[in-house]
Amino acid sequence: MTHSTNHMQKLQTVLALVLLLSLFPLSVQAQESVVYGVFFYSPSCPHCHDVIDNHWPGIQNEFGDQLQVLFVDVSTYQGSQIMGTAIQAMRIPSNGVPMLIIGTDVLVGSIDIPQRAPTIIRSGLNAGGIGYPPVPGIEQHFESADLDTSHAVPFSNTGILSDPANLLALIVLVGLVGSVGMVGAVVWRVTHPKKRLRRRIRVVEPPIWTLRIGIVIGIILAGSLVMGSFSDGLTLALSSVVLVIFAALAFDMFKKSSLSQITRWATPLVILAGLLVAGYLAYVETTLTEATCGAVGNCNTVQQSPYAQIAGVPIGVIGIIGYVAMLLVWVFDQYRKQATATWLLFGLALAGVAFSIYLTFLEPFVIGESCVWCLTSAVVMTMLLWLSLPIKQMDVTATR
């Protein structure tokens, strides 16, 4: 009986060891299951800080050491080089931040990253982990970097002028405000003549150089969009058409000496350029597609900001409505030649410029990034303000 008992004890011990050994590889495999990622950010980007400060701690706490993410500051030379290598190697159409790369998945913006990252990480861990992103040399950066992500990324407000797109936004903003002031002064001077003046008041037509400056800035912005759109056929086609429109208008405007000499077809051509820009922005905003911003700027950050909608309506859709309304009024004015239609077109352009001032101010000073598509639309609105200036109607008013 004793011998039988000892035999049973030995058998139980062997079975326990076999069971333990069978579970050991699973434990090791679970411990080795790791997801690697690269997070590109800029210290001057509010949306980067929104993700890092408000969303990332919860994600990191959920997965712990099984989530290893390399944070890369793109405002530094080395960081920008790493991001450039990643964009080129993975053929990423976007150059905006925040950008998170996990495996072959690319997440951009303060909406996309918090929504999709946890699901991708869980799926990766269940599948045995996700290796380094397919970026040349990234493994060496992981090995030499401190992957402690518990500390906050330092915030910087000194980078407004470091981005060429923000500098362009400031130039466009000055042009918008200046145009409203100049046009307002002309209208006020003509529609409010001094009562003691009984003779005809000669209307001083605004100088054509105002439009020439606008068309040059428009060509620069459209050229930037073309240069950064070679990997996206749709964006390349749209931006190329806008560039051709601006170039054709420049050819006409630099030959004329006054606003009244500019061809009447300039207005619908400029409206067409605005429709193309607004149409692309509406497509990006309604389909949640990543925008291709061009050589400079960060359109995705702007489009994913809370300022990209008003009462739930995307800014791009509002732009389409505005441009279509202006085109219809222009067509009506061509056939009816009524002063009411002329002034209505001018009023719509003035409202569009006022709205553009608000949006353009938000980009460098509130959002921290600028969208070249949005700046192009602002330039279009400024040109329409000058083109729709009712010079003949003001001349009639001044004679009364």
Summarize the structure.
The protein has about 400 residues and is of the alpha+beta class. It is built from 14 helices and six strands. It has two domains: about 35-145, Glutaredoxin; about 165-190 and about 200-400, VKOR domain (de novo design (two linked rop proteins), Up-down Bundle), CATH 1.20.1440.
**Proportion of strand residues:** 5-15%
What general form does the structure show? elongated
Q: Main beta sheet: strand number and arrangement?
A: 4 strands, mixed
Main sheet: strand order: 2-1-3-4
Query: Nearest-angstrom radius of gyration?
Result: 30 Å
User: Which spans have pLDDT < 50 for at least 5 consecutive residues?
Assistant: 23-30, 148-158, 195-204, 396-400
Count of alpha and pi helical runs: 14
> Could you say which structural class the secondary elements and strand pairing correspond to?
alpha+beta
- Architecture (CATH level 2) name of the largest domain: Up-down Bundle
Q: What distance separates the N and C termini?
A: 129 Å
Helix-strand pattern? HEHEHEEHHHHHHHEEHHHH
The CATH top-level class label of the largest domain: Mainly Alpha
**Which topology of the largest domain does CATH recognise?**
de novo design (two linked rop proteins)
What integer is the average pLDDT?
80
Domain count: 2
